[in-house]
Amino acid sequence: MGSFSIWHWLIVLAIVVLIFGTKKLRNIGSDVGGAVKNFKEAVNDGKSTPILEDEAQGNTIDNEIRQKQKQ
Questions:
Q1: What's the DSSP call for residue 18?
Q2: What letters, b where the CB count within 10 A reaches 16 and e where it falls short, cover 13-39?
Q3: Mean pLDDT confidence for 26-36
Q4: Whole-model pTM above 0.90?
């Protein structure tokens, strides 16, 4: 009684298609796809960090630590 067989899922799919129609399901699919694409772009934009002023001049934190260790 745990999982459904493939026949159960096919019957559910047929009922959903009869209720909503293929055109509406296609529109829902493209809307969900667009939302996922926008979400991925937003996540990738959030990963890119702005360049700090010191990094733009070539003075990274690692370089500062190395210079202090040499002294």
A1: H
A2: eeeeeeeeeeeeeeeeeeeeeeeeeee
A3: 91
A4: no
